[in-house]
Amino acid sequence: MAGRQTPATRAADAAGIAYTLHEYEHDPRAESYAGEAAAVLGLDPDRVFKTLVVAVDDGDLAVAVVPASGSLDLKAVGKRAAMADPARAERVTGYVAGGISPLGQRRALATYVDETAELWDTVYVSAGRRGLEIELAPGDLVALTGAEVRALGRAS
User: Up-side HSE of residue 144: CA atoms within 13 Å toward CB?
Assistant: First the structure.
């Protein structure tokens, strides 16, 4: 597993969190990275969460973690929130777009996790690179990121 270590897995290891890694062959033509993970791994897309970096009202960045099956209601993050520029998101988090994990980011950002995560015993988020998912308990995800749980998503 040493070759699969990422800042996300190192953060989980350092916190003593139980997790399972799921690796798959990423298709560069995939339109939705979280959707691809759900399909390839045979998972319910409501259980796989995408990590979105958002520019909030004060210009800072925040992270929204929402189900792959839906989309982010930006107003749930801030009145004038907008998706962050991908290059800025990569620079601040230390991850490449499509592989941004809510765990182990270069700079800790305010994090919001959609309330539906609590419906599952475990959820899947990016482990820090395309084609690698980390499965962990939603409570561990919230604790490790210092996230606030709220209604963020809307069905697509």
Answer: 25
CA atoms within 13 A on the CB side of 86: 4
Query: pLDDT digits over 8-62, tens only?
Result: 999 999 999 999 999 998 888 888 889 899 999 999 999 999 999 999 988 899 9
Report the C-alpha gap between 66 and 114 in whole angstroms.
5
Distance (Å, whole) CA 113 – CA 132: 20
Strand (E) or helix (H) holding 135: strand 132-136
pLDDT in tens, 89-146: 999 999 999 899 999 999 989 999 999 999 999 999 999 999 999 999 999 999 999 9
Give a yes or no: residue 156 inside a domain: no
Structural domains counted in the chain: 1
Q: Which two tokens stand for residue 144?
A: 């490790």
CATH code, domain carrying 8 = 3.90.960.10
Look at residue 78 and tell me if it is in a domain: yes
Question: What's 48's DSSP letter?
Answer: B
Cα dist from 50 to 84, 98, 130, 150, 151, whole Å:
14, 9, 12, 15, 15
Facing residues of 6 across strands? Answer: none
